[in-house]
Design brief:
This protein has about 375 residues and is an alpha/beta fold. The chain has helices at about 65-75, 90-105, 145-150, 170-180, 195-200, 210-215, 225-235, 315-330, 335-350; strands at about 10-15, 30, 35, 40-45, 60-65, 80-85, 85-90, 110-115, 120-125, 130-140, 160-165, 185-190, 205-210, 240-245, 250-255, 265, 275-280, 295-300. It has nine helices and 18 strands.
């Protein structure tokens, strides 16, 4: 395992497919920050419709989307330069996707335009009553290639590369090149996909959803055991993995346990969020048990929200990853970057669409600045 040094002077680059656009924290291929660049068509309804029903929206919007693209925008709004490698079609939607990125100050020069291809898009139905959202995605018919990744020149002068499990033909060689150049790699993991096994040994940090650890290690009893298995058998060079779980907060499993006497809590001033440490496995009184590798468990609650504070959860995870990327580039401690991620994700759910609520530093408590 390596513990890479992240500088504060580089940019973040992104490689994404037709579903999302990425920020220049070097974001790699995948759908939506871990994906590509696309358009989101969002409709808000009072309740999810029953089959064959006809209902009216209470609000709607059309905006840029995609995991990687959303993450890039989140990082850019926090002041980090970002570039995106994505694939779009030569249609009006492709033009809108690129314009949406450039309007945010994201470098979209590496975006590949595929002639005769329909740009990726997603229909998003927000259930206001249930507080959920359902996404129906239509990807592009072609994906980025290794040649696209090589031609983009994304790794020149960057501080961090972000990839996900999609488009392995471009993502694996890009991550391999980043490792060779000493550039840390951050991975967004949603599912076990073709290429996941090849990417995991190349990454230094992982942010995943609540389901991914158990999808990777279904034989393990519990999420933390699955996260430990992920670090031991798959992401063998990674320093840590964070699993996010919406309003249940986020949990990090880190290889290095805290030093004796180190603070077990982190509480930024003026913020109702306390980050705490425990260990995995938990302390045992079993004198005959074989000692195993003890890992640091860092728990951060979700950002406290006022009643009615959730408008749309689309893109909240992407915003969280963008904040984590900013924290890594700034050299922040794990507690600080998790608190920042919680705050940015909490702000994100208060707006319409994947980017409507994504915030900048002026919208955050000063104690969270990294």
């Amino acid at each position: 395992m390596t513990n890479p040094t992240v500088t504060t002077t580089g940019t973040i680059s992104a490689v994404v497919d037709a579903i999302a656009a990425a920020d220049q924290v070097v974001i790699g291929p995948g759908a939506g920050m871990s994906a590509a660049a696309g358009l989101d068509y969002t409709a808000v309804v009072d309740a999810f419709p029953t089959p064959d029903a006809k209902i009216r929206t209470t609000a709607s919007s059309t905006s840029g989307g995609g995991n990687a693209a959303n993450t890039a925008v989140a990082a850019r709004r926090l002041g980090v330069r970002a570039s995106v490698l994505a694939l779009v079609g030569d249609d009006a939607a492709g033009t809108a996707i690129v314009h949406g990125l450039t309007a945010e100050g994201v470098d979209a020069a590496p975006v590949v335009v595929a002639p005769g291809t329909t740009s990726p898009f997603t229909y998003i139905l927000v259930d206001a009553g249930g507080g959920t959202r359902t996404c129906v995605h239509s990807p592009a018919a072609v994906e980025l290639t290794a040649a696209d990744a090589a031609a983009a020149g994304l790794l020149e002068g960057v501080a961090l590369l972000h990839v996900d499990g999609r488009q392995p033909e471009a993502a694996v060689p890009l991550a391999t090149a980043a490792v060779a150049a000493g550039i840390p790699v951050l991975m967004d993991a949603e599912k076990v996909r073709a290429g996941t096994a090849q990417l995991l040994p190349l990454v230094d940090y992982i942010v995943c959803n609540a389901a991914f650890p158990r999808l990777y290690a279904p034989h393990c009893l519990g999420t933390q055991a699955a996260m430990a298995d992920l670090l031991r058998t798959g992401a063998t060079r990674a320093a840590w993995v964070i699993s996010t779980a919406g309003d249940a907060g986020a949990t990090m499993l880190r290889r290095s346990p805290p030093v004796d006497g180190a603070p077990r809590m982190y509480a930024p001033s003026g913020v109702d969020v306390v980050v705490t440490h425990t260990t995995f496995p938990p302390p045992s009184e079993c004198v005959s048990c074989e000692p195993g590798e003890v890992m640091d468990v860092v728990a951060c609650p979700a950002w406290p929200l006022a009643p009615g504070g959730v408008v749309d959860t689309t893109g909240a995870g992407d915003a969280y990853i963008g904040a984590v990327a900013v924290g890594l580039v700034a050299g922040a401690g794990v507690e600080a970057l998790m608190a920042l991620g919680a705050a940015v994700a909490g702000k994100a759910v208060g707006g319409m669409g994947a980017r409507g609520g994504v915030c900048g530093w002026d919208d955050l408590p000063p104690s969270l600045r990294v």
